[in-house]
Sequence to fold (429 residues):
Amino acid sequence: MKLAIIGTGYVGLVTGACLAELGNEVTCVEIDEDKVKKLQSGSIPIHEPGLEEIVERQMAAGRLLFTTSLAAPVAQADAVFICVPTPQGADGRADMTFVESAASDIAHALCGYTVVVNKSTVPVGSAHVVEQLIRRYASPNVEVDVASNPEFLREGSAVYDFLHPDRVVVGTNSERAVGVLTDLYRPLTAPVMVVSPETAELIKYASNAFLATKVSFINAIANICDELGADVKDVALGMGYDPRIGFEFLRPGPGFGGSCFPKDCSALIAAASDRGYDFGLLRGVLEVNEAQKDVIVAKVLKALDDSLEGKRVAVWGLAFKADTDDTRDSPALAIVERLKAVGATLVAYDPAVPDRIFESQGLLRATSALEACRGADVLLVLTEWDEFRWFDLAQLSGVMAKQVIVDARNALDASHARGLGFEYVGVGR
Ligand code: NAD
Fold:
């Protein structure tokens, strides 16, 4: 098929590259000219394992193009995918500006029969809004169907997730659009759920809200473990053997972040409230998540006798999780901010986060995990990169001013660290 992807970020670029890999002719349309120039020259603007190879291969095969002009690719496309941001607005609701502007641009360019597919995470009713905009601006002889096809990929394993989805959700009232999208996704051999657009939109929000709930739940249990002397790792394992609970997403830490969970929880709370339902459970999830950052700061303070004035903190990791360069809503950045406010000097290291993030946070960037620790009073692990997990802690002896580790991800081997003479503080263990 001929496909146009609107928005070439984490979702759009992965979607475009993977759909080209499946044999389609894909043009990615992006408003950011610098990004397009970089992509055209073969440089990938994000850190995503496996993506560069696919983009390179598909560009060479002529199946993947990048452009700033939307008209021609949309006019020729069998399906157009909207993959633009839906950030949190000031009132907690999803800001639909980008989606609406993309829909109007698409409408003006449509030609022949096209399925317009919304992959952005959008409030229930958005497919209807997109359809109305398209019907308003498209020429009257244009045939178009709108579908909601939420994306479930995780940053850090986005290529794998796109090519091996647990399910594909197609939300549309049009049989013809169902035909196009089931054909497109057939090579993935995943179950395809055909539902109404409203149901598809809610499946995405409900999934993210549930996952966020699991994280806040285990963080709350971890905090209780800290008080009671239990080990949250074993508590989570003991819970996980029950198939109704499962092992996934029961890892305590500094709280969830990223460009999805916080904003999607807020948007769902707002949507519920608009219909007169107070989603108190989910408000609690966000409250626990916010407080968890203070829990980590308190651990650092306690480890250094309640004063960080003039103390040097080595920070390992700024990304909101491992294997990504994304720091949007990263708990690491919030914690760094709070540590600076109580007088700490911070030196940070992250293998993928770009320099501009360190600069904007006023952070000294170390060239390696080891260098970050030179002269530090405490090592604070904020992202669970494998590089940190397998770091030879013996190298830190004689490098740090004090042998103290606060491991906000429970990423390190606690007994090994203690055996080397470190004071080790984890989360719930
Ligand atoms: P992103 O910010 O990484 O990328 C969006 C891109 O769209 C940007 O490059 C931006 O310049 C471009 N853009 C904006 N308006 C445009 C327009 N009119 N025409 C062309 N390009 C335009 O965002 P993302 O992380 O890829 O997320 C996109 C959507 O997918 C959001 O709704 C998000 O909630 C959802 N989502 C994200 C993830 C994830 O892990 N990042 C996973 C599932 C769903």
Q: What stands out?
A: The longest strand covers residues 113-118.
